[in-house]
Amino acid sequence: MNEIDEIDLASVRREYTKGGLRRNDLTPNPLTLFELWLKQACEARLSDPTAMSVATVDETGQPYQRIVLLKHFDDEGLVFYTNMGSRKAQHLEKNNKISLHFPWYPLERQVNFTGVAERLSPIEVVKYFHSRPKDSQIAAWASQQSSKISARGILEGKFLELKQKFKNGEVPLPSFWGGFRVVFNSVEFWQGGAHRLHDRFLYQREGDSWKIDRLAP
């Protein structure tokens, strides 16, 4: 029996004791509560508080998830950037329905957004691209995201080649690099509770306002 077999997974559990979420804690607009929770995640010095799991679906209906960093949000939606040749971008080209999940485990909180992804304008993409560290800009050129490579050395060699090429000048925006704005129509807030009596509230867009329902855990 190996080490993993000796772990009793059924017994791995703990109580959630950080406190609850009540209806009077909610805000009319879900973004207001999300902004507060995100601020608290940053203040708690969580690792990568802006990290979110992005879920897309391919043409066969197979779901995929990956971690991406949130770069901006407002009433128009939540923004992230990516290589437009990536698997997630290809999925969204055919099916723009998307889900974003923020797993703030140390605070015993989760937030989930569902909606549709819309491509950002070239002006938005250029502005953000040139705000990135120069090495990150070069890395965008070096990697054909989601393509198959035979060895890491190929990627590192391409990066060093491009770093030399752009060492004395501005890195241009790659034609294959862009971003998405997620226009959301539902948001769920989850707060852990004692005895597995978790608090869940679902916001659903109804015209210019939001309907709020408590969900059983």
TrEMBL record:
Gene Ontology biological process terms from the UniProt entry: pyridoxine biosynthetic process
Cofactor(s), names only, from the UniProt record: FMN
Keywords associated with the record: Flavoprotein, FMN, Oxidoreductase, Pyridoxine biosynthesis
Pathway(s) served: Cofactor metabolism; pyridoxal 5'-phosphate salvage; pyridoxal 5'-phosphate from pyridoxamine 5'-phosphate: step 1/1; Cofactor metabolism; pyridoxal 5'-phosphate salvage; pyridoxal 5'-phosphate from pyridoxine 5'-phosphate: step 1/1
Function summary: Catalyzes the oxidation of either pyridoxine 5'-phosphate (PNP) or pyridoxamine 5'-phosphate (PMP) into pyridoxal 5'-phosphate (PLP).
Lineage: Bacteria, Pseudomonadati, Pseudomonadota, Gammaproteobacteria, Enterobacterales
Oligomeric form and interacting partners: Homodimer.
Residues annotated as binding FMN: 66-71, 81-82, 87-88, 110, 145-146, 190, 200
Listed name of the protein: Pyridoxine/pyridoxamine 5'-phosphate oxidase
